[in-house]
Amino acid sequence: MSRFGRALRTEAREVLADRGALLILVGAVVVYAFFYPTPYLNEVLKKVPVVVADLDHSALSRQLTRMADASERIAVTAVVADVVEGERRVRDGGAGGLLVIPDGFERKVRRGEPVAVGAFADASYFLVYSQVLTGLLESAGTLSAGISITRLGASGVRRTQALALVDPVPLLFRPLFNPAEGYAVYIVPAVLILILQQTLLIGIGMRGPAPAADGGGPASKFGEALAVVLGRGAVFLALGLANLFFYLAVVEGVFGFPRRGSPVVLTLFALPFLTATAALGLALTTFFTRRETAMQVLLVTSLPAVFLASFSWPPEAIPGWVRGLSAVLPTSAAIPGFLRINQMGASLAQVRGEWAALWILVAVYVPLAAWLQLRHWRKAAPAP
Amino acid sequence: MIEVARRELERISRDRLSLWLLVLLPLGAIALLWATFSSEVVRDLPVAVFDGDRSDLSRRLVRMLDATPSIRVARQVPSPEAGYEEILAGRAWALFVIPGGLERDVRRGSPSPVVCYLNAQALIPASAIRKDAVSAVATLSAGVQLVAREARGASPGAALASLRPIRVDAHTLFNPTLSYVTYMTTALLPTVLQIFVLLAAVQALGSEIRDGTGEEWLEAAGGSVWRAVAGKLAVYTVYFFALTLALLGLLWRAGGVPLQESAAMITAATLLFVLAYQALGVLFVAVAGDLRLATSAASFFSGPAFAFAGVTFPVEGMTPVARVWSSLLPLTHYLRLLSDQAIRGATPGTSIDRLGILALFVVVVPALSLWRYRRLLAARPSLEAS
Hints:
The structure holds 2 protein chains of 2 kinds. Chain A is of the alpha/beta class. Chain A is 63% helix and 9% strand.
């Protein structure tokens, strides 16, 4: 126990004097929290530019154009006379989609013949694509329904009945947890957890393994290494908890994200996440011969970690072996867990799968870190 | 310059870290990302259904939802609350609540709506489910309308035309067989590589300062700072240029990208892309004057770049601060050019400005920083001595 206490005190004193490590563990934590969300702060992508190829030049085609422009998802930036010109504008990046109103559009509608307008959306951006298609579908749908209802009304059908005929099985969407379907709420809270993990891993990596001078040597026992790992780990756990609550309470508050998690549940869930991360960090230190190596090696893991954390890309679409591999990263279980607790209001029981996965990582990484620390001592100090 | 390049190759072969930074980590990360997206499309997302009606119509609706590509009805729940539980527990992305008496009310012409509760915290599953739910309900509605109109004595064709006078034919622009995955991987590949081009340049230059070997390096270059830097970095230019082109070629062949437009332009842009990041490496080391600080700066610059490059969220929708930062990343311009030239098949003229901006990085950034090197390289050994 005294070895644990000594390791804790030494690490606490040294890390506070280590400007390079503090730059990551505190500086980067604060700067990233306010820098990373900046692209998404406009939240919803509105008024995506759309080109209309109006081949009909009728009152009805102009009405459809006006209705499309009035949609909050899209804005009509140009009306062109042919499809080729419209498609060229989208290709060259000036617009996210093209609405083609065919020749004879109004005439056919008047005669009661079915007519189709063409909606072409740029699929290179997932969001642009869905905004353009939804916007065009909605405006054409509204115009179409209006025509039917007027027509049914003219033939003596009552308005409520006409509505039921036009839309016999109404479907309503209720977006939960993120009612405005904003992009920031979708991305930022998850990325904050990732930043927490990465800064902790890199910061610990810069601190390096405990030197032999701290009482370790060729004759050290596993228990001693374990005590040192736990002592140092406790410092990083405390630091991680402080950073986590800074993110969950202050940063998410500043950006106005929904926060439904109770502090008790969040702390209970954070415990295995931060312990596993700290232990993984301490295990990795023994492989970094220089301080900057930690950053060089760990930086690139952020990108796969984002996509493997089951929020930006659904896990159902990821091959099983990749998901299995991703389990080594604490964020793979921690991000979905934190999102459900804090953004959606889940209880600890509702994230028990993720919680258990994190405890398994603790059970693996803590002994691993101790064993690697022991090996490091034995290598560093040759037997007398 | 050849002498400097030879010296650099020897340094690389001595250092085990180089193997990681140049080969194992970039290829490993790219392979992992590629595999992550390899299943092509989002399909069979689990949803919960509360069927309060248990009629022919409601069962038909459930079957139609399940038959769409992206929706899989994973469980039927006994109450809407139980369905909400499923969402909170992460077992369902959405909950459909079918009101009691749906079939009867539809027949009477006064239906209450079917409500779809979406987990909008996850935008991609939510939008996929929304799109397919709309199409499933539209198909169901068309059947109901047909029956209703025929009962009123209209022929099926006339019935549909009068109830839905305007249809929308939705198309995916550019290559319809091209998957979202190919777009994503096309963007992710250069994103991974820019990190390593930059880190490798910073490491190659900064380690000379750290180890105090600057004078020896300068000597190999015959005393010319320009030749010393260029000769050293040329080794990495060749490697990363070839690697980027090879990987893009492989990806596009596998993903069936027809390589619509100018291959020459893509080749030129790739060379400028690698050079631009190396130029930034030269700048970071010059300003920081120290490997560790320069590595921190490089990490800050390249780590979050993907969010700012306008791939997942278009630049036009960003806040002004983010737009400025985005324009300072060579990655933004390179990815835009790749998407325009390789995938959309834009006319080569539209990408000239992007090519120009990349070239500007290559020319301006080293001009700002090279002059500091003579002092950096000379100063260090004397500092060491004092």
